[in-house]
Amino acid sequence: MRTVILLILGVHLAYGETHSLRYFYTAVSGDIDFPEFTAVGLVDEEQFMYFDSNTKKVEPKTEWIRQNEGADYWDRNTQKATGAHQTFRNNIQVAKERFNHSTGLHTLQLMYGCEWDDETGAKDAFNQYGYDGEDLINLNLKEKRYVSPVQEGFITQQNWNNNKGLIESMNNYLSIQCIEWLQKYLQYGKSSLEKTVSPQVSLLQKDSSSPVTCHATGFYPSGVTITWMKNGQDHHEDVDLGELLPNEDGTFQKTSTLRVTPDEWKNNEFSCVVEHQGETKTEDEIRTNNGDSVPIGIIIGVLAAIVQLIFFAVAGYVVYQKKKGEGLQV
């Protein structure tokens, strides 16, 4: 099973890098204080648009898209998102029936988009559905057919594979139009997407018997490596690497936790090494949190992660639906 808890991984605007344009649609069914439908667009790691079923309007999330696209663009995309909302509202009910789910919290998701290497010109694309964090159906672009790993998706797989026009339309969008929009967005946001911000690094421990957490935060772009050293040598045992998390200001944070006894820490020299954009930072002094206090950066990141677990997936791959009429019931 493939999972995507954090889908905004480390690609950024620099020579010879792979860039991505990704859209995430999420429908939620159940008793939860969250919009019934959300849509998010990302260029590389940066969110540039947002829509939900409460606001019913596509909104810009970066200055570079706000300054370069006018009212027609936002009206057109609001109409598309509104249509997707209606389709997903129907489709999640169909999915629940297929899986024999009548109650509880459930999610239906779509992830679609493309990648482009600005040095080699290599391209890739994706069109994937997920239900409750599990793969449901995806488009194999090389074979030009839909594939479902679960029995509940076989009906949709068969129906969509019989619709050659649908597959050709998808292929055309993903391999041509998506790349063109990605290149346009990269030019719009060049100065923003090229920025580099170094991480702040701290060693955190609740008490002397707790694990030691290396916390790197405030960095951009998202590509970062966190490792541990013990007495000057690489140390990989009893290490848990955390997920990449977004901060509210558009930067990122990540943690790595070392499970070590007080005696081990006292009798050896441990240090955390954080590498980002060719810069290396080393930290070996623990900051102890008394009681239940937690640094605000971690609090923000955890809240963001909770939102994304609901928003991008409770961990799953998702789906693209280019036409209003495309859905599980097709």
Describe the structure in your own words:
The protein is built from 7 helices and 18 strands. With 330 residues, the chain is of the alpha+beta class. The longest helix is centred in the first third of the chain and has 28 residues. 36% of the residues are buried. The N terminus and C terminus are likely disordered.
How would you briefly describe this protein structure?
This protein is an alpha+beta fold and 330 residues long.
Key descriptive features of the protein:
330 residues; alpha+beta; Murine Class I Major Histocompatibility Complex, H2-DB, Chain A, domain 1; Immunoglobulin-like; 2 domains; 8-stranded antiparallel beta sheet; 6-stranded mixed beta sheet; 18 strands; globular; disordered N terminus; disordered C terminus; Ig/MHC_CS; membrane; transmembrane helix; immunoglobulin domain
Largest sheet: 8 strands, antiparallel
- The residue fraction in helices comes out at 25-40%
Q: Give the helices and strands as they follow along the chain.
A: EEEEHHEEEEHHHEEEEEEEHEEEH
What is the gyration radius calculated from CA atoms?
Answer: 22 Å
Task: Please identify, by name, the CATH architecture of the largest domain.
Answer: 2-Layer Sandwich
List how many beta strands DSSP finds: 18
Number of helices: 7
Shape designation: globular
What class, by secondary structure content? alpha+beta
CATH class designation of the largest domain: Alpha Beta
Family: Belongs to the MHC class I family.
Organism: Culter alburnus (Topmouth culter)
Pfam family, one: C1-set
Keywords: Glycoprotein, Immunoglobulin domain, Membrane, Signal, Transmembrane, Transmembrane helix
